[in-house]
Amino acid sequence: MGEQFKIIEYSLIILFIVTGSVFLISTSDLVSIFLSIELQSYGLYLLSTIYRDSEPATSGGLMYFLLGGLSSCFILLGTALLYANSGTTNLDSLYIITSISDDVYDAIPTVVTTFVAIIAKISIFIFLLELVHYTIIGTVVGLTQSRIKRLFAFSTISHVGFILLGLSIHTVESTQAFMFYLIQYSVSNLNAFILILTIGYSLYCYAIGKQEDTNKNNDNLTDVNNSPIQLIDQLKGYYYINPIIALSLGITLFSFAGIPPLIGFFGKQMILSAAIDNGYIFMALVAILTSVISAVYYLAIIKQIFFDRPDYIINEELKDFNAEGLITEKNFIFKKVNIKTNNIVISTSLSLSISVITLVITLFIFIPEELLSLANILALILFNL
């Protein structure tokens, strides 16, 4: 657990990632976009493999790097083809191309115009079918997962279907819904992973009750020091250990499922309203169906947390642990503390982060203006609405 405190490159890597993200948001040139993506991606590659002694982290980071390299090749190929046909890499200069379509329709023969108009609609329809693929795959495969981070990964695929649905409609309302959904899902996802991290730290003093259960769990776990919570079964009965953290995780999972009146419900409502208003009835029905199915595995996690009895007991090696600690400031001892397993608390930064984000998820219904205004402003800036 202590390895992360020995790594001094964290701040520099985070700075590279944030810098790349800011450049990506603020640029409108394809070359600058590519460089911004690369700057951000290199930081993410390093962050993925920063635990050098962890074989799973290293192999996962290597796969991430190879996938990113392949994606970069496609970005460069698309940029080169666009430059070869238009003579520019600036997205603002490409807007004039869209205004030529009315002249093209008017100038070419009617038979050809019919073909050109239909092909565009077919391609959009196929793109919408891909959205169905995204939402269904993410939902159905998530039902079979027993590992918590894999389940969140497939859950993300399902949510990407919602995000792309809002983006593909391309109206003012759908774009604003897209931005709001992206913001609320990012906030909820951040809270979920902070909670998983916190639960892992809080269980370091505990062990599985039966030795055979401990051995069975250990066989399915890898790199426990850096990822203490890996299986959904490890959350069993956590409500009886720390009710506040369990309640925060339950609220976050309900928000993922779109249960009112949490913030996730309003994100899905905005996307579905935009889809129905613009005639995308079939896509809206598919999105509703997959959302209902995905609620099954969220509820399965909640059942284990709140209704199953915990297998955890205080670790025998730490049961009688008792130590005296000294808190100093400027070489002056101003407080003595007694450290036991029953008075080890979560750090202030984690507690504050979880509290603030959980309150935002829960109380959004009473203060919606701030996030909605932020989503509208971002939609206006990024999409020139």
TrEMBL record:
Keyword annotations of the record: Membrane, Transmembrane, Transmembrane helix
GO molecular function, one term: NADH dehydrogenase (ubiquinone) activity
Chief location of this protein within or outside the cell: membrane
Compartment(s) where it occurs, according to its Swiss-Prot or TrEMBL record: Membrane
One GO term describing the cellular component: membrane
EC assignment: 7.1.1.2
Class of this enzyme: translocase
Domain NADH:quinone oxidoreductase/Mrp antiporter transmembrane residue range list: 117-294
Family of the protein in this entry: Belongs to the complex I subunit 2 family.
Protein name as catalogued: NADH-ubiquinone oxidoreductase chain 2
Source organism of the structure: Cochliobolus heterostrophus (strain C5 / ATCC 48332 / race O)
